[in-house]
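Researcher: Let's do a round of design. I'm pasting the structure tokens now; please hold your answer until I've finished.
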């Protein structure tokens, strides 16, 4: 799922393609405008103007190299026919994330804090158990997530730790990478080229379709996105003194588990 790349040398302002032509760039191509000579000084201004005029594109203004990259992003029209696919991926994400984090808790011999799982795993971040192996999976605790990668299949997933016992939050970049690294989804029904930016559009479009919904984190101010059809899990605020009744997930043995 690689794009073709085209480079245009820009030696003067007249070498910049007109907007109407740039808008015809297909998603399968990434255009690189390489500036040379005195026109290089106009690169940032040109880039900012292109950002305003190319709303459905990712326009990258490189900070060091004298170039601008232009790539079309995924559209709601492309996503619409495959909303059931993305909904299924989101459900799979939550299911696998839940199974893996409970398997890790079992391995580390800890009980997951119901309101704030991050508290359970923070203690391991400064020691040798911050990263390790669990059957076919390698794990790495970092930030507000625990990353898992299957050493056999290459599948990867990042488990969020700040949404109570709901582990289905779909970070745009992590969700895209999960989809692209899961063998059973290949070939994808629609290409994902820009993991983060395409992921943002996928999430927003699925929200509009009602397939995804916003979920509240245990940390005030943080809001995630997950599949609407989710387990009935109460999310408790980090600063709340009231504990809620939370449905526990059953632990599955994953030490030999490969793809979902």
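Researcher: That's everything. Go ahead.
Model: Designed sequence:
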């Amino acid at each position: 799922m690689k794009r073709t790349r085209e480079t245009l040398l820009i030696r003067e302002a007249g070498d910049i393609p007109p907007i109407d032509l740039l808008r015809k760039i297909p998603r399968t191509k990434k255009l690189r405008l390489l500036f040379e000579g005195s026109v290089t000084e106009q690169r940032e201004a040109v880039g900012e103007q292109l950002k305003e005029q190319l709303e459905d594109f990712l326009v990258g203004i490189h900070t060091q190299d004298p170039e601008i990259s232009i790539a079309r992003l995924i559209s709601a029209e492309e996503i619409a026919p495959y909303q059931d696919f993305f909904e299924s991926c989101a459900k799979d994400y939550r299911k696998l994330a839940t199974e893996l984090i409970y398997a890790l808790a079992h391995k580390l011999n800890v009980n997951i804090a119901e309101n704030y799982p991050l508290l359970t795993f923070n203690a391991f971040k400064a020691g040798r158990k911050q990263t390790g192996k669990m059957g076919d999976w390698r794990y790495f605790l970092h930030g507000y997530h625990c990353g898992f990668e299957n050493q056999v299949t290459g599948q990867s997933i990042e488990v969020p730790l700040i949404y109570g016992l709901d582990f289905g939050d779909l970070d745009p970049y992590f969700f895209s990478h999960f989809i692209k690294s899961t063998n059973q989804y290949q070939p994808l029904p629609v290409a994902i080229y820009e993991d983060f930016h395409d992921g943002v559009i996928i999430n927003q479009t699925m929200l509009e379709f009602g397939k995804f919904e916003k979920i509240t984190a245990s940390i005030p101010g943080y809001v995630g996105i997950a599949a609407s059809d989710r387990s009935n899990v109460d999310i408790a605020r980090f600063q709340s003194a009231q504990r809620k009744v939370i449905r526990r997930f059953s632990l599955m043995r994953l030490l030999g588990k490969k793809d979902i």
